[in-house]
Amino acid sequence: MRALFALSVAAVIISPMAIAADYDRTIAYRAGPAHPYDTVPAERREVPWTGRVPACDDPAVLSDIRERFATTEARYWASSLSITSFEHIRSLGYRPWSASYIPRRFCAARSWTSDGRKRTVYYSVREDLGLAGWGWNVEWCVSGLDRSYAYGGHCRAARP
Predict the structure, then answer these.
(1) Helix, strand, or coil here: 152?
(2) Span of the secretion signal (predicted)?
(3) Cα-Cα-Cα-Cα dihedral of 63, 65, 66, 71, to 10°?
(4) Do residues 71 and 65 lie in contact, with contact meaning Cβ atoms separated by under 8 Å?
(5) Angle (CA) 112 148 85, round 5°
(6) What is the mean predicted confidence (pLDDT) over 82-111?
């Protein structure tokens, strides 16, 4: 219990620092093309990224999507729907905008869901966008199951 409390206190303390660091790294995109960050690759900044993100078919990435999809379905939609398997996993692009943006890999895969239907999953694996800016993170959208239309029709906003 104490460890959980300590972890939550640390997250509250570290979060503003992570936000400030992210602000420093992303301020360039609001400053226009004359800003020096626009020409500097993300790996050569004062607070650099490594440019290493897991591959589209990495088991940890697919497991994260599978678990978070099931949790979302259960909590928000009162559904027992889950992803049972992935196939035809492919990359849609790695750093499609430029080397100065946060490194991310865009992917797509066919998924089989527990209702027996085949659906397309679009996802991006993003560097240093995990909890408090630590580790990679996955943002995903299952086409046809974006009930709140957070990613637009057929998950348009989840693609490059």
Answers:
(1) coil
(2) 1-20
(3) 120
(4) no
(5) 10
(6) 88
